[in-house]
Amino acid sequence: MYIIDLSAPVDATFDEPDPVRHEILSPRDGALHMSEEMRLHFGIEFDPEVLPDGEFLSLDRMSLTTHTGTHVDAPSHYGSRASYGNGVPKNVDELPLDWFFRPAMVLDLTDAGTGVIGADRLEKEFVRIGHRPEPYEIVLLHTGASAFAGTRRYFTDFAGLNGPAVHLLLDLGVRVIGTDAFSLDAPFGDIIGRYQRSGDPSVLWPAHFVGRDREYCQIERLANLGALPRSHGFRVACFPIKIRGAGAGWTRAVALLDT
Q1: Which of 68, 83, 141, 146 is the most exposed place for a label (fewest CB within 10 A)?
Q2: Is 232 a member of any domain?
Q3: DSSP secondary-structure letter at 88?
Q4: What average pLDDT is seen over the chain?
């Protein structure tokens, strides 16, 4: 078995709508910090200079959203109420873990450009690769958008699914849909422009709002999908970080392939 990393880094140098703040405390800073914490909280005086090289342990402090980097959107991200089950959408810490370690397939949609991908385009790709999703299979969308990661274009130049395309996948039993783009929906500017021209509210973030009526998860901001050597016949592990009450959680998504 070999492993392919499908995750984008959390990088404070990247262009982000919500900038990442990353403070690095060096091992020397860690020694001073530990000494001060011992004094303040436990009344213990400790001279950090007795440590080897006067150093202790490094420490990273970060401020970022749960939608930074590769992450799983939970149903509660889509709205406060659901029309299924008991009407309360699950948070990321409540999701069934067996959704996130499954056989997977990747669809080559790199010709989609910017805008909307419909159900007919997905059907065409199923025919090309000779495989349709099976229940609970993880479906990955290779749009090519990850080439722009770290730049402003990453948030404007990509393609997302429309409502019928999402319904098609869910009708086939899919519960986790992943994309290498910023969003499973089309770019904000594209969506708002189409709404202003048509007045049709169904064009407003349909991939997300479908999740108010049907329980499923998205993985957004994947990477390296072009490195997958085949379209199906591999597994993906993408367990979300367990953040209580959160609408999303980061994941280190990887593909597992038999040699």
Answers
A1: 83
A2: yes
A3: -
A4: 97
* pLDDT at 77 (0 to 100): 98
Q: Do 43 and 101 have their domain in common?
A: no
Q: Which helix (H) or strand (E) holds 192?
A: helix 188-198
DSSP-assigned states of every residue in 95-159: S-GGGGEEEEEEEE-TT--SEEE-HHHHHHHHHHHT--PPTT-EEEEE-SGGGGTTSGGGGTS-E
Residue 73's nearest CA partner among 181, 187, 224, 194 is: 181
Q: State whether residue 162 is helix, strand or coil.
A: coil
The secondary structure element, H or E, covering residue 177 is: strand 176-179
Is the pLDDT reported for residue 100 higher than 90? yes
The arithmetic mean of pLDDT across residues 236-241, rounded, is: 98
pLDDT in tens, 60-98: 999 999 999 999 999 999 999 999 999 999 999 999 999
Residues 156 and 249 in one domain: yes
Copy the structure tokens of residue 71. 């992450």
Residues 12-22: what's their mean pLDDT?
96
| Buried/exposed 31-58: b ≥16 CB within 10 Å, e otherwise | beebbeeeeeeeeeebebeebeeeebee
The backbone region for 246, taken as left when phi is positive above 0, alpha when psi lies in -120 to 50, beta otherwise, is beta
In tens, the pLDDT along 126-172 reads: 999 999 999 999 999 999 999 999 999 999 999 999 999 999 999 99
CATH number at residue 166: 3.50.30.50
240-249 core/surface letters (b: 16 or more CB in 10 A; e: else): beeeeebbbb
Neighbours of 17 (CB within 10 A): 11
Q: Is residue 16 part of a domain?
A: no
Q: How do the residues of the chain divide into helix, strand and coil, expressed in percent and rounded to 5?
A: 30, 25, 45
Based on the structure, what is the number of domains in the chain? 2
